[in-house]
């Protein structure tokens, strides 16, 4: 995989993870706690894929295959870091909605 392809994979998997995390929040808000957890799990899988691509880029650079700093690379890293943050916050929201629904007797 060349650098450009790896960068686009970071963007792809980061975007997927972010979307799934947001989906998890919406599902939890609508009392679908099982669906919310599944979306969080899928988001984690997407982040793992992105991390593997990121690690491959780092390993190439360590091996002497220098990666040119570009706006695309910066965008990919920014996209990934935001996805990681949103996924972590989504997990908190899912837990919070679960507690709210349970306290209201909605059953979780």
TrEMBL record:
Q: Which residues bind Mg(2+)?
A: 78
Any idea which residues are catalytic in this one? Answer: 75 (tele-phosphohistidine intermediate)
> The organism sits in which domain of life?
Bacteria
SUPFAM superfamilies, per the entry: Enzyme IIa from lactose specific PTS, IIa-lac
Pfam families on file? PTS_IIA
Which GO molecular-function terms appear in the entry? metal ion binding; transferase activity
Q: Please list the cofactors this protein needs.
A: Mg(2+)
Record Gene3D superfamilies: Phosphotransferase system, lactose/cellobiose-type IIA subunit
UniProt keyword terms in alphabetical order: Magnesium, Metal-binding, Phosphotransferase system, Sugar transport, Transferase, Transport
- Residues modified as Phosphohistidine are 75
The answer on whether this UniProt entry bears the keyword Oxidoreductase reads no
Query: How the cofactor binds, per note?
Result: Binds 1 Mg(2+) ion per trimer.
Kindly give the PROSITE patterns that the UniProt entry links to this protein.
PTS_EIIA_TYPE_3
> What are the GO BP annotations of this UniProt entry?
phosphoenolpyruvate-dependent sugar phosphotransferase system
What PANTHER family does UniProt report for this protein, alphabetically? Answer: PTS SYSTEM N,N'-DIACETYLCHITOBIOSE-SPECIFIC EIIA COMPONENT (PTHR34382)
Q: What is this protein called?
A: PTS cellobiose transporter subunit IIA
In the record, what lineage is assigned to the organism producing the protein? Bacteria, Bacillati, Bacillota, Bacilli, Bacillales
């Amino acid at each position: 995989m060349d650098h450009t392809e790896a960068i686009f994979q970071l963007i792809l998997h980061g975007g997927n993870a972010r979307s799934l995390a947001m989906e998890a929040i919406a599902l939890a808000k609508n009392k679908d706690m099982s669906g919310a957890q599944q979306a969080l799990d899928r988001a984690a899988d997407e982040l793992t894929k992105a991390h593997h691509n990121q690690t491959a880029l780092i390993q190439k650079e360590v091996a002497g295959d220098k990666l040119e700093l570009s706006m695309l690379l910066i965008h990919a890293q920014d996209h990934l870091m935001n996805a990681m943050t949103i996924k972590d916050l989504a997990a908190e929201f899912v837990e919070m909605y679960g507690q709210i629904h349970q306290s209201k007797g909605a059953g979780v």
